[in-house]
Amino acid sequence: MAKYAAAVDQGTTSTRFMIFNHSGEVVSVHQLEHEQIYPKPGWVEHDPLEIWARTQDVIKGAMEKAGVKAEDLVAIGVTNQRETTVVWDKNTGKPYYNAIVWQDTRTKDICDELASDGGQDRFRPKVGLPLATYFSGPKIKWILENVDGVREAAEKGDALFGNIDTWVIWNLTGGPDGGAHVTDVSNASRTMLMNLETLDWDDEILGILGIPRQMLPEIRPSSDPNIYGSTPASGPVGGAVPVCGDLGDQQAALYGQTCYSPGEAKNTYGTGCFMLLNTGTKPVPSKSGLLTTLAYKIGDQDAVYALEGSIAITGALVQWLRDNLGLIEKSADIEALAKTVEDNGGIYFVPAFSGLFAPYWRSDARGVIVGLTRYINKGHIARAALEATAYQTREVLDAMKKDSGVELTALKVDGGMVYNELLMQFQADILGVPVVRPKVAETTSLGAAYAAGLAVGFWSTEEELRQNWGVDKRWEPKMSEEEREKLYKGWLKAVERTFDWVE
Predict the structure, then answer these.
(1) Per residue in 108-161, pLDDT tens?
(2) Exposed/middle/buried for residue 325 (C-beta within 10 Å: 0-12, 13-18, 19+)
(3) β-bridge partners, 474
């Protein structure tokens, strides 16, 4: 019987289970959306129990579609929306509060207060991150301070914290009945609580934030031959399969894109946009507003670091045009609408819906459309929305060049928006470098499956994984240098108009 590696990919808007063969090809996939909860402006939550229910459904669905049994799976990896924070009761498995999503801005006051002593970069030398609402640490502090009984439970050792990877792995390996309370270095590096050098929780920062260490998971390698745990026969997999791979979604995409050498980069176009550059086995501090983050750690090998540019709103802008304005019926319709016009008609759309992430880190910014005239129609708005993704990517790339001194020769891309030909061509034009889409564009799930499969010897080396990577399509830049710089200058001017909106 053929053997497969699989991955749970728990994202911001949906969860899927993907099964891959030895060549890295998709054998089966099942995907389901979950509810986005907006209790107040700037607040974004998910129901962790709904996420676990969806996870069970997609596992069963993908296995049934392909007729795959537990004994056909060599290992399962997990990849996840990062920074989204869950605190739950280890005895019952019940969350004390909804998951606070990475886009949520309720911790702005906590971050401002922490920054009043030592500035926004107060912890950056240790953790590689600025003080921002994006990361898990301030979210844990908010739950401890605002949800009755959680602090007492945490101090007693009954309350567990996890990003979504930890929540899924704990449930997948037995939950209250012996579930593994673990995370990997890539996810831990997004909490603002892990020291980049020691790869352990930082006691000084835990003290400042008032977070009891006993509620935190154990930090493990991203691909771990000493497996985290196994799935019980009573669970959705229906038998014992090792769970031994764990990567935050963007690091998983970097791994799935086989960016294993320093200087290799990928950009993932999802709800947000995330560009990661492999910087090797030493952390590179950023002076240009990027994040220094863990890329991955394979078994007992040295950890690999990355520079990351995070953009909050890209695909989410297309969803907003669909759901809030009713401009399109389904997300894929945006390309046809944008093609009804020659250009953006002189408008720019800066989607700073929850502030600006890299390279600005301005939580006071809000979205704007600038340059409006009577001439503008919905085609121009659709086009400006797509262009916003490409411009934001260019800003991040410029910052990466400054920090690393590395000139990018081509950009490997993945995620849902890479099937939008108009966007990919404009991306190549505005960057001035080729944009390359691989044969398997779902590299996030693939990266997690690779990490799990490596741990159990299903794949033996990274070189073997590189052999699986193939080009599907390549876009070459066609725009003149003069036109490129003129458009980009207009964008930078538009971004400035978003600052200082929230007093």
Answers:
(1) 999 999 999 999 999 999 999 999 999 999 999 999 999 999 999 999 999 999
(2) exposed
(3) 436
